[in-house]
Amino acid sequence: MDMEELTPTIEELKRVLEGKADEDTIVRELDTYINVYRSTLEAAKRGIVRKYGGEELEFVSGDGVKKKVERIEGNEQNVDLTVKVLHAEKREITARGEPKTILTGIIGDDTGTIPFTSWETDRFNLEKGGTYNIRSAYAKTWNDRPQINLGKRTEVEADASEIEVPQRVISYSAKEVKLSELMDGMGNVNVTAKVLSVGPKDITVRGEPKTIFTGTLADESGKVEFSSWGEFPHEEGEALRIENAYVRAFRGIPQLNLGERVSITRVDDDIGELEDLESSTPRSIGELEEVGGGLDVLVRGTIVDIRNGSGLIRRCPECRRSVLNDECITHGRVEAQQDLRIKAVIDDGGGALTCIVNRELSEALSGISMGEAQRMTEEHHDPDVVAKEMERRLLARAAEMRGNVVSDEYGMMMIAQDAKVVDVDVRADAKRLLDELEAML
Amino acid sequence: MMRREPAWRLFSAELNSSSMTYKGEEEKSPSYLITPLGAKVNRVLAAGVLTDKENVGSEDEPMWRARVNDPSGSFYVNAGRYQPEASAALADLEPPKLVAVVGKVRTFSPDDGRVFVSIRPESIVEVDEAAREAWVLEACRSTMERMRALRLALAADGGTAEDLVKQGVPRQLASGMTMALDYYGVPDSGRYIRVLQEAFRFLLPDDDVDLGLTEDVSAIAEKEERSEVDVDAEDSIMELIDELDSDGKGAPISNLIDEAQNKGISEVEFEEISNSLMDKGLIYEPVLGKLKRI
Questions:
Q1: Residue B205 and residue B199: Cα distance in Å, rounded?
Q2: Which residue in A74, B133, B166, B282 has the fewest CB atoms around it within 10 Å?
């Protein structure tokens, strides 16, 4: 390897060795490792640092490459980190048909924070606030953002050192955020929003009864459910500035928590009339993907797929799950009941999500009633005839859907509260767009 | 979380000019076609006229090749045994028909370095004029969004995808845009403005849409040179098709080639001209070996 190509490595080694070896020595050593012994670059760096007694901070220990959080790119197969756990919670998921408990959360060091998932919950005991040496983790990207995964090969041990995670990084946002931007794991968030509804709720916390306040907040960007763990002397219709709240998601839907450190002040800020806030404006599906879901969301797009499981289906009378051949996974042989539904994929060009549309809305959306669906199926002796007809009528149609958007490992899903095909006024929209284009040129 | 790839709305002119493919490093990560305007495309939604179709497979194992025409050119659609629903739909659709296609983009490159882009359909359905126009409108909107992002990227000169995201550009477009600029360089925006002009003329036929293109001289020269020859030759071929279409089922291509040669148009030229006429949606191939005016 040409020594010129090694300039960045030489600089790196000079920095790490802090004068313990001069440049000539480093160049000579690298030349020997790489050009004489043809070792890999990582191994050469490790060897030289060991030999001259540098801190192994940035480098390899065991087989992995030691990295700071900020430098994780998302394609590391084997990486070592020393991190503090900022947030961790267990989740039940289904992996390859088997129920499984995983641990997800956020870890960080003095350079930044990164989400993580531990797939071996039994082996690692990662606790919030603790510092750990993680060896042989791997990184992946989701939505172009890196994440750390702890898998079979990973080793974790507690570390006594205290890591200072920079404040600006823990609190994703010390600034004001819109409700549509709230995202799982955020701390120290400030919002200005109107109370759409609120009420007391009795719960049990660690065996003790406690009354909390829950409800819904809205601003012009969207809505969010909130829980206040302390007093909440405010009513429906009041505009509030809420500082230092935090966000946890439930099935992908971000929820705002008002904890001990929250400060709430009444403001005159005119956020909008309650009625306007009640009716939602369409959200970008791509942005929904970034935050994982949302409460009472309106999306607008084109129906690009009518998925399997649409049309006339049969459900277990006990659990309402759809069944094949009148055989329920939980309840065995059952007297299944017929139902009609549509699983439509709606796509706005920047993202896509599956909408589950119930019988009533399906009938209106497709113009096929339950009775007609039954007749069609009998007439054609084809269980798929209804779904095919739905596809013929709905595919490539513009539609609007409203409902809660949740997410799991299979992607985002909306339980539709409202679903309709929309007519596009092409001429009017085209004129408006043409004006925009002329202004651009 | 598994993310479903969105269906990009873009004109065939942009899709067909693409030659850069990208695949993430993770296992199972999807592959993308990066267009010169920075779209990072795995799936597309296209709509237009199904102008012609041909079964290049067998009766038992059909392999359909079809073309779907938009205001800027044609999408190439290929469906075989692994697209049973789309194949069945194509078998039933007799061109010309208005259709919408949802599918994955595929590229094919022969050894000479050229790259052909086609769509492998997941579904293909007949649509009405309103749905087709709504698609053209969305394709305009989407093309304009990319031109806006391109402008931001050029203004930031050397900025990263993350910088574009901070300025409100959707993440996938921001990532595609930086790759596109690296690979293709700065695109000829005049070309895409012309595509938009055609599309708006299609949507607003009574409005005399004129974007006052300050076309650069070379583009005008090239266009005129080409169009002079082409328009004359195309007119002759259109006339021939009308003349030789004795039974209303189309003019036999072999007769057309003979007659064209009498007018000084070689077989190769004839092939080019008839392809161009098909691309423009003026003629189609009702049955193999015959051409007919739409």
A1: 10
A2: B166
